[in-house]
Amino acid sequence: MQENPVFSAILERRSVRRYTSEALTKEEIEKIIEAGRYAPSAKNAQPWRFIVITKRELIAEMSRDVRKVMARILKFRFILKLFSSDLRNPANVQSLKNHATNPKDTIFFEAPVLILVVCKKDHFQEMSCACAAENMMLAAHSMGLGSCWIGYVRFLKLLAGANKKAGVPKGHNIAAAIVFGHPENGNVNAPKRKEEAGIIKWIE
Ligand SMILES: Cc1cc2nc3c(=O)[nH]c(=O)nc-3n(C[C@H](O)[C@H](O)[C@H](O)COP(=O)(O)O)c2cc1C
After folding, report:
1. Is residue 80 domain-resident?
2. What is the residue with the minimal CA distance to atom 2 of ligand 1?
3. Is 109 in the pocket of ligand 1 (CB under 6 A)?
4. Rounded to an integer, what distance in angstroms lies between the CA atom of residue 154 and that of residue 159?
5. 45 Cβ below 6 A of ligand 1
6. Are 190 and 14 in contact (CB under 8 A)?
7. Three-state secondary structure along 123-153?
8. Is residue 121 a part of any domain in this protein?
9. pLDDT class for 81, splitting at 50, 70, 90?
């Protein structure tokens, strides 16, 4: 089958975790958001709001906040693990320890741009925002830029005032947090994908 540019972008996009310090232009950021705005959304509600953070001190502070929450979770993990299966997995605990004790920004990778896709707390709205997020990451890739979805941002809601500091409006949740920037390293290999045979069920 002849490859087309969309399919190539889907296959080639990678999560980028090393960025140069070069800022993105406003035009580049607007282009990325345009790709998000054209994503499908339930009932065409377009529930998203985009919070664009380029203030590096704020990104660094949010990184510290996420790691502060991780440290607290670790402190109380022997009780919390009764309720969270994640904390019963030693690999997850080790990962939290690595982030919590690392002086570097292991959360946002010192990327020059962080975009929060926020919406009201509703299942369909969050799914629509996830579509926008993927469009944005593919668009960034097509522009020669790197991106990475940062799920760890969810820890911010456990810290009083942290979401407000990030500009999240009242009654809204962060559905997706994505960093963008100029990739520092060359090609990153794709993490192994599961075999098709194991994940597709054909009903013919
Ligand atoms: C919902 C979601 C949350 C993620 N959270 C993180 C994260 O907090 N930190 C990180 O480095 N990567 C995060 N990632 C990136 C995944 O690790 C990555 O997509 C996966 O390993 C596959 O690699 P690829 O994106 O290069 O294909 C997240 C991805 C998704 C979709």
Report:
1. no
2. 151
3. no
4. 10
5. no
6. yes
7. HHHHHHHHHHHHHHHHHHHHCCCEEEECHHH
8. yes
9. confident
Tell me the per-residue pLDDT of 142-200, one tens digit each, with 9 for 90 and over.
999 999 999 999 999 999 999 999 999 999 999 999 999 999 977 778 899 999 888 99
How many independent structural domains does the chain possess? 1
Q: Is the CB of 149 under 6 A from ligand 1?
A: yes
Q: Considering only CA atoms, which of 16, 24, 46 is closest in space to residue 141?
A: 16
pTM: 0.95
Q: Which pLDDT belongs to residue 73?
A: 95
Residue 31 Cα, ligand 1 centroid: separation in angstroms?
22
Does the pLDDT of residue 1 top 60, yes or no?
Answer: no
81: in domain: no
Residue 72 domain-assigned (yes or no):
no
* CATH code, 131: 3.40.109.10
Please, what is the angle between helix 123-142 and helix 5-12, to 10°? 100
Can you give the residue range of the structural domain that contains 181? 12-56+107-186
Per-residue model confidence as pLDDT tens digits over 109-136: 999 999 999 999 888 999 999 999 999 9
- Helix residue ranges per DSSP H, the chain: 5-12, 26-37, 56-75, 77-80, 90-101, 123-142, 162-165, 196-199
Kindly report, residue by residue over 18-69, the tens digit of the pLDDT.
999 999 999 999 999 999 999 999 999 999 999 999 999 999 999 999 999 9
> Six-digit token pair at 4?
């087309």
